[in-house]
Amino acid sequence: xxxxxxxxxxxxxxxxxxxxxxxxxxxxxxxxxxxxxxxxxxxxxx
Length: 46
What we know:
By secondary structure, the protein is mainly alpha-helical. It is built from two helices and no strands. It is about 70% helix and about 0% strand.
C-alpha cells in the first residue's frame, strides 16, 4: 500500500475519532437520559 495513502487514511481516522467524541458530548447534552439507557433501541419511534 502507498505510504502516502496510509498516512491520509490514518489522518482521516483520527479526525473521525475526534468528531465522534464531539458528537457524543453534544448528544449527552441533548438527551442525557437516553445515553444512560441500557437498550436505546426504539427510542426514536413514536
